[in-house]
């Protein structure tokens, strides 16, 4: 079980400490065995600055579904972003931070009626649609809503295609839906699209913006006064990635098709903000060596199977649902270690629980750690404790400059941060084996013989180094 009263605040790092050194310190604490995350709040802040500098006209509305961590939402709320919510639970997560409902777009084109009622009750008026039935629901439940028509424009390359589920055809369907909205007296205020999560074709944004212009023009003939363009998501956020090409295409397309500054332009970035902020550390708890045939010579080759304490039912669900490619990085490489073809497996009893199929790794031993970068997007929100394996704890850190920037920005305050002996503070809440409790020490244990105490042992905590 876990030590109670965990300290979930942001730990402020001194000038000689960074996120990797904190990860190393936790590993070497001698008491940590479960998988865990390090979240660098500074990385999220830097991403926000990059987004605003790259596309100054576009107001980001963070996609809550990507990572709904309270710390992430608080940080982005403090930075002034809006939020893209897909359910009443996500709406509540944002509203409890003190965010004004006007900063939320309910960007789910097919909403349960109870969720529409909740949006109406909480003042979240901006929402999307792409079908007739949604308009009839809005007419009956929330006629004062401000609707945004979502069109389909798919990137040829994307981690997750969304057009197969959402988005009306901009030519054959959108005009009919706008005609219906006008006849029902529903106020449609703009156009949205989503080219696909993790877009790999920047040019698709120009096609989508051009198509949106046509719909703006048609809506004007019906008497609508469109004032919103929602560029959706699709912005890469992994280490070493860049949104410069996408930003350049978007900026030029806005100049060409939407030069009027009265049109409010928003976007729904998710992975861009959080992917690289999270690093996952996993412990190798079991090893199996097998012989496999060389695909060329047919000769047997040594293949090592490493079993770690997180898998596809936990953080690595991103392999199944987000089509992510993960790279295992040994935290420590032993001198002279030989490299072998290796696979990495999760802890459950499911044979499909494979994290990495075939990768060259140095020979490691039980107790060694593997690090996985770029694990902040579409991981923790979907993770489950299947087979009884816990969801990894997150240790949140920030450097002193980030602390100075955020500590007085609502909803954050100085109470959200821990300053001082950061490494000792981070050890609060480290995992201990299931079934153990931590007694108050020192305690005295008597050794008896024949009813008489012949010896006493005094137990107390002592500070030790790494057990490796």
UniProtKB/TrEMBL annotation:
Q: What is its EC number?
A: 4.1.1.17
Highest rank taxon of the organism: Eukaryota
Q: What is this enzyme's class at the first EC digit? A: lyase
> Mind listing the UniProt keywords for this protein, alphabetically?
Lyase, Polyamine biosynthesis, Pyridoxal phosphate
**Which cofactors are named for this entry?**
pyridoxal 5'-phosphate
Report the protein's function: Catalyzes the first and rate-limiting step of polyamine biosynthesis that converts ornithine into putrescine, which is the precursor for the polyamines, spermidine and spermine. Polyamines are essential for cell proliferation and are implicated in cellular processes, ranging from DNA replication to apoptosis.
Identify this protein by name.
ornithine decarboxylase
Name the gene that codes for it.
LOC108564521
């Amino acid at each position: 079980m876990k030590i109670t009263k965990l300290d979930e605040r942001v730990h402020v790092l001194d000038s000689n400490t960074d996120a990797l050194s904190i990860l190393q310190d936790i590993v070497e604490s001698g008491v940590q065995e479960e998988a865990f995350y390090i979240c660098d709040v500074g990385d999220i802040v830097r991403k926000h600055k990059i987004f605003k500098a790259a596309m100054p006209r576009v107001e980001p509305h963070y996609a809550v579904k990507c990572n709904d961590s309270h710390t992430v939402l608080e940080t982005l709320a403090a930075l002034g972003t809006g939020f893209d919510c897909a359910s009443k639970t996500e709406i509540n997560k944002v509203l409890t931070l003190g965010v004004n409902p006007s900063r939320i777009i309910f960007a789910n084109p097919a909403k349960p009626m109870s969720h529409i009622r909740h949006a109406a009750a909480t003042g979240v008026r901006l929402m999307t649609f792409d079908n007739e039935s949604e308009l009839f629901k809005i007419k009956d439940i929330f006629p004062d809503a401000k609707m945004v028509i979502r069109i389909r424009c798919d990137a040829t390359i994307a981690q997750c295609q969304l057009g197969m589920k959402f988005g009306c055809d901009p030519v054959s369907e959108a005009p009919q839906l706008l005609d219906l909205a006008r006849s029902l007296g529903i106020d449609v205020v703009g156009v949205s699209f989503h080219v696909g999560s993790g877009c790999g074709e920047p040019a698709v944004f120009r096609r989508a913006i051009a198509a949106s212009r046509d719909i703006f023009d048609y809506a004007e003939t019906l008497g609508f006064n469109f004032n919103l363009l929602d560029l959706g998501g699709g912005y890469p956020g992994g280490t070493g990635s860049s949104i410069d090409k996408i930003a350049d295409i978007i900026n030029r397309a806005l100049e060409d098709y939407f030069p009027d500054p009265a049109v409010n332009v928003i976007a729904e970035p998710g992975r861009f903000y959080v992917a690289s902020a999270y690093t996952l550390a996993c412990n190798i708890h079991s090893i199996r060596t097998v012989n496999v045939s060389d695909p060329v010579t047919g000769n047997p080759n040594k293949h090592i199977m490493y079993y770690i304490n997180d898998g596809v039912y936990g953080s690595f669900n991103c392999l199944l649902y987000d089509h992510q490619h993960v790279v295992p990085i040994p935290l420590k490489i032993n001198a002279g270690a030989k490299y072998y073809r290796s696979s990495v497996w999760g802890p459950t009893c499911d044979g499909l629980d494979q994290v990495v199929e075939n990768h060259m790794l140095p020979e490691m031993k039980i107790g060694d750690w593997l690090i996985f970068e770029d694990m902040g997007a579409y991981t923790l929100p979907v993770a489950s404790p299947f087979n009884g394996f816990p969801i990894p704890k997150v240790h949140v850190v920030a450097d002193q400059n980030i602390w100075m920037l955020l500590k007085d920005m609502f909803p954050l305050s100085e109470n959200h941060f821990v300053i001082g002996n950061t490494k000792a503070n981070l050890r609060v809440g480290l995992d201990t084996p299931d079934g153990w409790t931590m007694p108050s020490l020192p305690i005295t244990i008597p050794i008896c013989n024949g009813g008489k105490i012949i010896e006493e042992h005094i137990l107390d905590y002592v500070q030790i180094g790494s057990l490796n």
